[in-house]
From TrEMBL:
Full protein name: Sodium/potassium-transporting ATPase subunit beta
Any one GO BP annotation for this protein: intracellular sodium ion homeostasis
GO CC, alphabetical: sodium:potassium-exchanging ATPase complex
Biological role: This is the non-catalytic component of the active enzyme, which catalyzes the hydrolysis of ATP coupled with the exchange of Na(+) and K(+) ions across the plasma membrane. The beta subunit regulates, through assembly of alpha/beta heterodimers, the number of sodium pumps transported to the plasma membrane.
Species the sequence originates in: Hippocampus comes
């Protein structure tokens, strides 16, 4: 606390014109203090900048340096809704309009006319095949081409048929579109044996394909789900779309899709459905509801 003086008080303490002091110190003292702190904080800033630059030299522009804790890919679906619930009345357009709009917006980038550029896209076949190797991430190959994926592969869930522009919602037979989330340089591996797959899902296993299977989540919903049809390449996720090289090297990448068509859901009941993908390096976690799986509640209301 500055001392009180009788000859000028606070004003004189702030600036003493007789002694040339500012806050009790001469100009020379303040100059030394300023120089000290400029040098001190300059050194701190230099150390900080040098540390950041050294760290940046260890990072790759194309892939995460450490991926040992990266979880298996998430399995997500469109349309998405609060609490993963879909409830609608086929006779009331307003109840399912948000769902059909979400599907149209999502599938727009899969239109054929957006995949015509031969420098950006290539045909990778409409049957499951092995990995499409486009070189190492750190190679000088440059931007990689992406495999085309036509939304027409999704059949009645593509939204292309003039007779079914509403993705089945107007008939009480809704479609949802499913994808595996992107992980740079991740190569999903097909199941090594049927022992890791439920018996009812085993017929979906085939070479070069990550299968997906959906069923009732709760025992009380058994027999109420009805037939589920799977559309896409092999009804699963084909390996030729992997690996993904990241945004810089694979900017036009399109994930393979699977459309699920629920053709005979029991009406006026809340049905809980679980879908899983099966692979040798895909696991599940109770803490993450989308790690390799998801469950969704669907209610088709009305007669």
């Amino acid at each position: 606390m500055p001392p009180k003086t009788d000859d000028g008080g606070w004003k004189k303490f702030l600036w003493n014109s007789e002694k040339g002091e500012l806050l009790g110190r001469t100009g020379g003292s303040w100059f030394k203090i300023i120089v000290f702190y400029v040098i001190f904080y300059g050194c701190l800033a230099g150390i900080f900048i040098g540390t950041i630059q050294a760290m940046l030299l260890t990072l790759s522009n194309y892939k995460p340096t450490w991926q040992d804790r990266v979880a298996p890919p998430g399995l997500t679906h469109t349309p998405r809704s609060d609490k993963s619930e879909m409830s609608f009345n086929p006779r009331d357009v307003e109840t399912y309009l948000p769902y059909t709009k979400a599907l149209r917006d999502f599938l727009a980038k899969y239109d054929d006319d957006k995949q015509l550029d031969q420098m950006k896209f290539e045909d990778c076949g409409d049957e499951p095949m092995g990995y499409k190797n486009r070189g190492d991430l750190e190679s000088d190959t440059g931007v990689r081409r992406a495999c085309r994926f036509s939304r027409s592969l999704l059949g009645p869930c593509s939204g292309l048929d003039e007779k079914d522009k509403e993705f089945g919602f107007d008939k009480g037979q809704p479609c949802i579109v499913v994808k595996l989330n992107r992980i740079v340089n991740f190569r999903p591996r097909t199941p090594i044996s049927n022992e890791t797959i439920p018996e009812e899902a085993q017929p979906k296993v085939q070479p070069n394909l990550i299968p997906i299977y959906c069923t009732n989540k709760r025992e009380e919903d058994a027999g109420k789900i009805g037939e589920i049809k799977y559309y896409g390449i092999g009804g699963g996720f084909p390996l030729q779309y992997y690996p993904y090289y990241g945004k810089l090297l694979h900017p036009h990448y399109l994930q393979p899709l699977v459309a699920l068509h629920f053709t005979n859901l029991t009406r006026n009941e809340e049905l809980r459905i679980e879908c899983k993908v099966y692979g040798d390096n895909i696991s599940y976690s109770d803490k993450d509801r989308y790690q390799g799986r998801f469950d969704i509640k669907i209610s088709v209301n009305g007669l």
